[in-house]
Structures are given as structure tokens and as C-alpha cells.
């Protein structure tokens, strides 16, 4: 059995699809299954059992001997939520219980951290574990992810294999339900198909032109390939960046989306809202040497190719992966 938390969500459902393609059928899907729209992500997927997230640990007491691997993908990911109690419950405390279960039952673990832990990037974007305690996230979501990374590294008892993955800007199919927290590509597609134009934030810094703010955008299929590699590798425990290692501008993203639709780019620039302006990231880029050093050598999908696949094969056709 393979456990996937956040199973009905964006990344979790894509991971289950890939596991199915690799002939894994004994999937234990863990989530809050009350969102009917999100549950569409699991349609036509081979799942052995659905377990409500609040019932997971009692389920593990009875079934832990059958579990081969644990992917802890589920989390509250809203960067605009400022109720720290929500993140303490769902991201920090729940993840601690997952960790302790994997220690007690000797289950290898891959869990989702986040590039939000890097804040404004004052300390760079290197995934050196000795730097993690000095990072300064910009919101309670980032704090919760960084707090767990710090806690995990300080535990005297660890799973015999674990990997925490700092996801950078992930995009791809099955994010329909995420609303404002969906990727910029998803929002760009909605704007372009509705109005024929794309609105991007102006730059409020003299060293960046409008739309030239940069992010490390990673296609969800690449992210899943790394997860599968780590499941098979099961060596070199630690915390790893997961981006492409190449930052691209929002202008690049916009042009790629127009091109995927066969349209001439029309981009307008609007002021960055004042309430987020002082916390707005102008540049993120994962350093990927650490993951490469343990043997992951598959190339990452270019922004243009990833956007084209996502737009043409999923968004236009309104299909799930």
C-alpha cells in the first residue's frame, strides 16, 4: 500500500495518476473529501481505500504493516490566510503525527515543504539544511512549513528514509478547484479566453521592468517524476529544493500562454495591491545541485512546453489528469 495525503488535491491527485500508470493500485487516498469539485480529481483513478484525514492515525494502527511508502502532500496552502491556529493544526501538528507514525512503523516518507520558506530570498535559495533556521517566511503558511522542517531536522528519531521537498511555483492539470490559489498560468488562461488580454502586476522596483518579475515555474508532471524517483531511491535523506533551477519572467509566462492558444500576446500592467507590495517576491530560483547530486538526472520541462501541454491537453479540453 502507498499512502497519499492531499489525495483529492492538485498535486496529490496527479501523483496518484502517475502511480496508477506505473501499475500501483493499492493506493490509500487521505483527504477531507467534503469538496465535491475537488473529488473530481480522483475520478477514474485506481484507489484501494479512501480515508478521511482525521481517521488516518487510527487506520494506521490497524494497517501499518501493509504500508510500503508514505507521501504526505496534504496541507493548507493559502498564503493569504493569517489565522495561525489553522496552520498549526493542519500543517505543523498533523505533519508531526505523520512523522512520528513513519518513525514508529518504519515507513519511508516524502513530504511537501515549500519555497515559501525562503521569504524574500534574503538568504538565497540554497537547500542547505544548516541555513533553514535562519530563513524568514513572509506569511503563516511559509512559517508553518519552515517550522516543520526545523522540527523534523532536530528530531533524534527519523524515518529510515525521508525527503522534504521545497516546491517552487507548481502549475498543471487538476488545479481547477484552487480558485485564487491556482497557478498564474491557470489565471492567465481564464483572462485570455474571457477578455483577450492578460493583466500582470507592474514593477515597483527600478531594477525590474513591468512583467519582468521572475519565478521558478515547475510543471507538476516533473514534480511527480521526482517523487517517484525518491520512492525508488530511498537513500540520502534530507530536505531538497524542487524547481527547475531556471527563473522565468511573468512576461514569458504570458507570451507562452497566448502562443499555446494561437493568439497574439496582449498584456496590460496594473499596480501591485498596496497590501502585498512590501512582501511581493521579485525573484525566486531553486538551486538544484543537491537533488542532482543524488542521481536525479532527468531534464525539467521548459516553461513553453509545459504551458503548451497544460493549455492544449487539459484547460482547452477541460480534462483532468
Task: Provide structural commentary.
- By secondary structure, this protein is of the alpha/beta class.
- The chain has a domain at 2-171 and 217-245 and 285-301: 3-Layer(aba) Sandwich (Rossmann fold).
- It has helices at 10-21, 36-39, 56-63, 84-105, 140-153, 184-195, 220-233, 250-260, 274-277, 289-293, 303-315, and strands at residues 2-5, 27-31, 49-52, 69-72, 109-114, 162-167, 169-171, 198-201, 214-215, 217-219, 238-242, 248-249, 267-270.
- The strands form four sheets. A seven-stranded parallel β-sheet has the order 3-2-1-4-5-6-11, with helices on both faces. Strands 7-10 form a two-stranded parallel ribbon.
- Helix 8 crosses helix 11.
- The chain is globular and about 55 Å long.
Strands, helices and their partners?
Layout: E1 2-5, H1 10-21, E2 27-31, H2 36-39, E3 49-52, H3 56-63, E4 69-72, H4 84-105, E5 109-114, H5 140-153, E6 162-167, E7 169-171, H6 184-195, E8 198-201, E9 214-215, E10 217-219, H7 220-233, E11 238-242, E12 248-249, H8 250-260, E13 267-270, H9 274-277, H10 289-293, H11 303-315
Parallel strand pairs: 1-2, 1-4, 2-3, 4-5, 5-6, 6-11, 7-10, 8-13
Antiparallel strand pairs: 9-12
Cofactor: NADP(+)
Pathway: Nucleotide-sugar biosynthesis; ADP-L-glycero-beta-D-manno-heptose biosynthesis; ADP-L-glycero-beta-D-manno-heptose from D-glycero-beta-D-manno-heptose 7-phosphate: step 4/4
Pfam families: Epimerase (PF01370)
Amino acid at each position: 500500500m502507498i499512502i497519499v495525503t492531499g489525495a483529492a488535491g492538485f498535486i496529490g491527485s496527479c501523483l496518484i495518476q502517475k502511480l496508477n500508470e506505473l501499475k500501483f493500485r493499492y493506493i490509500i487516498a487521505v483527504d477531507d473529501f467534503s469538496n465535491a469539485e475537488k473529488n473530481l480529481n480522483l475520478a477514474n483513478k485506481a484507489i484501494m481505500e479512501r480515508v478521511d484525514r482525521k481517521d488516518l492515525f487510527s487506520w494506521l494502527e490497524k494497517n501499518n504493516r501493509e504500508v510500503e511508502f508514505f507521501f504526505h502532500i496534504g496541507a493548507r496552502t493559502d498564503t493569504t490566510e493569517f489565522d495561525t491556529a489553522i496552520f498549526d493544526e493542519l500543517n505543523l501538528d498533523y505533519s508531526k503525527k505523520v512523522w512520528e507514525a513513519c518513525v514508529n512503523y518504519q515507513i519511508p516518507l516524502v513530504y511537501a515543504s515549500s519555497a515559501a520558506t525562503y521569504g524574500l530570498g534574503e538568504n538565497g535559495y540554497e537547500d542547505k539544511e544548516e541555513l533553514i533556521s535562519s530563513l524568514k517566511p513572509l506569511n503563516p503558511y511559509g512559517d508553518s512549513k519552515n517550522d516543520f522542517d526545523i522540527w523534523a531536522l532536530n528530531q533524534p528519531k527519523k524515518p529510515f528514509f525521508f525527503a522534504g521537498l521545497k516546491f517552487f511555483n507548481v502549475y498543471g492539470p487538476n488545479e481547477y478547484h484552487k480558485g485564487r490559489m491556482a497557478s498564474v498560468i491557470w489565471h492567465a488562461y481564464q483572462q485570455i479566453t474571457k477578455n483577450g488580454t492578460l493583466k500582470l502586476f507592474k514593477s515597483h522596483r527600478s531594477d525590474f521592468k513591468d512583467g519582468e518579475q521572475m519565478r521558478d515555474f515547475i510543471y507538476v508532471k516533473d514534480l511527480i517524476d521526482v517523487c517517484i524517483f525518491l520512492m525508488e531511491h530511498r537513500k540520502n535523506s534530507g530536505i531538497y529544493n524542487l524547481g527547475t533551477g531556471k527563473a522565468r519572467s511573468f512576461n514569458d509566462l504570458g507570451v507562452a500562454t497566448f502562443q499555446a492558444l494561437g493568439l497574439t500576446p496582449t498584456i496590460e500592467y496594473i499596480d501591485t495591491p498596496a497590501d502585498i507590495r512590501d512582501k511581493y517576491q521579485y525573484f525566486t530560483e531553486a538551486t538544484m545541485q543537491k537533488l542532482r547530486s543524488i542521481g536525479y538526472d532527468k531534464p525539467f520541462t521548459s516553461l513553453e512546453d509545459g504551458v503548451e501541454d497544460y493549455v492544449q491537453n487539459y484547460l482547452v479540453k477541460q480534462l483532468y489528469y
